[in-house]
Amino acid sequence: MEPAKNSSVDCKLEVVVIPVSDVDRAKSFYGGLGWRLDADHASDDGYFRVVQFTPPGSGCSVIFGKNVTGAAPGSAQGLYLIVSDIKAARDGLISRGVEISEVFHGADGVYAGTDEPYLFGRRRVRGLDPEHRSYRSFVSFRDPDGNGWLLQEIIVRLPGRVDAVATALFGAG
After folding, report:
1. Are 35 and 82 contained in the same domain?
2. Average pLDDT, whole number, for the chain?
3. What does pTM read for this prediction?
4. Which of 16, 104, 137, 146 is an S-S bond match for 74, by CB 3.0 to 4.6 Å?
């Protein structure tokens, strides 16, 4: 058996499906976050409806709707949003009426509370990472169905994470 060859075709994550119980309530919530509404399409017979939103600056969108997924409403957990300033992002969500946790970081390399087992462990410490390192400070919130979101602060990405050629095209380094 020959080893697999690296693909030269780009493969980008485009959409994440969020299971919700009330499409209009979810549309109001995600629109209230300031996310861009990309689509709201329904079949003529009313069987199918899909709503798509994109967070500011994101290359990936979320969709939800009627008969879009068989997953239970609220079962999407550990959905990450990456921000460059966790405090400003938290303040922005609070100003939009979102119930959100305090900023927290992990103790001894463990980053979560018992209420969020999908986040690498069980111990949270209130406040920013003491050394203000990337990947170490978080806040969390839930949508009306209980789908769980985490904001993670990344100030400097790990090497190799960003395509230098693609970022050079936009004047970023």
Report:
1. no
2. 86
3. 0.82
4. 146
